Amino acid sequence: MLITESERARLLRQMMLDIVIDTINQRTGGGTKYINQRDEDFLVSAFQEENYRKEFTDALKNFVDMGNFKYPIYTDKIYVSIFREKAKEYRKILRLHDKDRVRDTFYSEILDLVSAYEYGFAKVLEDAFTRKGKKLTSWEVDKLFLAFETQAHWKPLIEKARSKMASRDLAFRDALHAQLKGYIVPLDAAEFERFLGEKSKELQERLEDAKDVMKRLKDR
Hints:
Elements: H1 7-28, H2 42-63, H3 70-83, H4 87-94, H5 108-132, H6 138-149, H7 154-173, H8 189-196, H9 203-219
Helix pairs in contact: 2-5, 3-5, 5-6
């Protein structure tokens, strides 16, 4: 996937992509947009992310003195911090339609990191509100976010997330994140097995499996 030096190399790379995408189309029924959902970890990450997202939006509502535009503003700040793109830019790269939800296309590792950001920053806002005794201004929130995102422990998690997103999207979706070009690495066999192999499933199949498990637990 990294071969780009000559015309022959470019043609070879395109041929490799054509083979990969043709295989993906056969396995996924013709689309690569939601190939992330074939990962067995996706469903758990998606369910957990919904809860952490609510913690984040509730914190913005209760502790930040701004209008409703604060929700997309600080969501974009998280996206830019993690993978250097606002939601609008990400949608364009993946060629998403208006009704497509951005997070439905995230890999589980990205969802997990977004959840950590949202829950963690929600607690930062709550603590700052408690100390101040009234809602925070946009200037105060921006200052808190800068301190939050530059904490050293984020670096290895962000580096890994960027590599996963950039490399998988190029290989599986033929989508290039220009801001993450330096993070692209060739995918190993385990990555293809994870999304195209026997253990991968369509989301609907996983939901059916989960429903059956919940029913058995209820009947005990």
